[in-house]
Every structure is written in structure tokens, then in C-alpha cells.
Amino acid sequence: MTGRGDLSGGQWAQLEPLLPVSNNRCGRWRDHRQVVNGILHRVRTGVPWRDQPERFGPWKTMYERHRLWSADGTWERLFQQVQSAADADGAIDWDISVDSTVMRAHQHAAGARRTPPSAPSGSKGVAAVEHLSKRPWLRLLGRVVAVVRQARAWGAPAAGSPPKST
């Protein structure tokens, strides 16, 4: 049974060959499609790992797979491959519009922080990308972008730290 927000058959057919295969040292892996749909659900909704719906399997499996793929660069490679395929298909418009409008800052903005804010963990950016066009590449690219943003935020600390649950 598929739920709202799960990968469609076409999207899964594009992603499946790009995912790593089990090395059979630790037993068989749970179905990638079920786990990836669980990870996408968490990225879209922000629900804690332990509160994931049962249809995605054990929360620990999703957490560990996401942590492992964040640390070894699987999400980054997946993003690059999907982006290059979408670009080759002509589904990405690389034109950039620059506006030179100048606006005065409010007086309370004088003490604003100087470091950029961290990557958003919500799904507002993904929803905006999904509604721009109904082309399958753009919808898939938007979903992969959301996971890669989260993976980048986790990647550096996850490489050498023990697992943590949220």
C-alpha cells in the first residue's frame, strides 16, 4: 500500500539503480523503497524517527540507513546523478534573474546575526518545487534536494560520532 507523498513507480524506477546494494555481511537489507519512502516522510513532516508510521518498517532501520548514507555520501551522489539526468532531459531552467532593488533595513535589524541560518528541515521548499511543474524530474529532484539538505546537515557530525536518536 502506498501513501500520500510516496515515490511513484516511475520515480522509483529512476532511483533504484542508483542506490547501493547490500554487502550481505550484516544480513539482508530491508526493502530500499520502503525505507526511502520513510525517510522522505520524515523530511516532509518533521516527525521524530520513533513516531514514524509502521508501514515504513522499524524506525531504527530508517534512522541507520539515513545516517549511513549521509556519512558515506550516497545522498550527495544520488542528488548529482538525478540533477544531471534532469538537466540532460531539459527539465531544469538554469536562467537566473538578479534584481537590484535596495531596501532599507529596519532599525531593529542592527543586531542581526552574521552567520547564515541552518538549512531548513521542513518541507516548504520541496512543496514550492513540486508545484512549479508537473514534470516528473522536477518533482523527484525536489524530493532528493530535501533529503540532501538534511544529509548535509547530518553529514559532518555523523561521520565520526556514535548514533543518536531523535
From TrEMBL:
Coiled-coil features, chain-numbered ranges: none
UniProt cross-references to InterPro entries, sorted A to Z: IS402-like_dom, Transposase_6_like
Top-level taxon: Bacteria
Residues covered by the Insertion element IS402-like domain: 8-79
NCBIfam families on file: transpos_IS5_3
Protein name (Swiss-Prot/TrEMBL): Transposase
Organism: Streptomyces yokosukanensis
Lineage: Bacteria, Bacillati, Actinomycetota, Actinomycetes, Kitasatosporales
